[in-house]
């Protein structure tokens, strides 16, 4: 059972919670994070979604819904630890961009990590594989429709903050 805090369009917390799986009431939003992790070689870590999930078998950045009582950074750190087994330092994260989608506020987080793929602990019901990719490989995967839509924004956003 996953509970979310609810927000208005201006990202004010409403003091209400919502149970995942039930359609959100009109004018109510929840908070979602996408977490991009890059190593010192400039490679981006991608994880492959479990085939039973929405966008199954596609590659993506780590992310998900922020739980009740968490802030955006806490949700980002939790999602990375749950899905990949990586414990990131809160001080090493940078919020790159925030936007409003149809049902949620979306925050894009950026972290640097040089974790070895063989040291990851993948969440079996969420992630079936992970790999580091360079920009050319990532862009080719996007062209070949091997990724979720979230990955197409990374290099544009990161170039604004370098």
UniProtKB/TrEMBL annotation:
Q: Which domain of life is it from?
A: Bacteria
Residue stretches making up the Nudix hydrolase domain: 28-155
> What is the species listed in this Swiss-Prot or TrEMBL entry?
Virgibacillus tibetensis
Q: What are the UniProt keywords, alphabetically?
A: Hydrolase
The record's InterPro entries line, in alphabetical order, gives: NUDIX_hydrolase-like_dom_sf, NUDIX_hydrolase_CS, NUDIX_hydrolase_dom
Q: What is this protein called?
A: NUDIX domain-containing protein
Q: Name one Pfam family in it.
A: NUDIX
């Amino acid at each position: 059972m996953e509970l979310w805090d609810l927000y208005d369009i201006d990202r004010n917390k409403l003091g209400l919670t919502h149970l995942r799986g039930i359609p959100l009431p009109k004018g109510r939003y929840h908070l979602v994070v996408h977490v991009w992790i890059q190593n010192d070689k400039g490679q981006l870590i991608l994880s492959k979604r479990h085939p039973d999930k929405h966008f199954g078998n596609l590659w993506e950045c780590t992310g998900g819904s922020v739980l009740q009582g968490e802030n955006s950074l806490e949700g980002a750190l939790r999602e990375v630890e749950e899905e990949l087994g990586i414990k990131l330092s809160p001080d090493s994260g940078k919020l790159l961009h925030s936007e409003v989608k149809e049902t949620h506020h979306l925050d894009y987080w950026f972290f640097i990590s040089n974790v070895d793929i063989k040291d990851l602990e993948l969440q079996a019901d969420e992630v079936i594989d992970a790999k580091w990719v360079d920009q050319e490989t990532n862009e080719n995967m996007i062209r070949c429709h091997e990724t979720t839509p979230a990955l197409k924004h990374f290099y544009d956003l990161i170039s604004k903050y370098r």
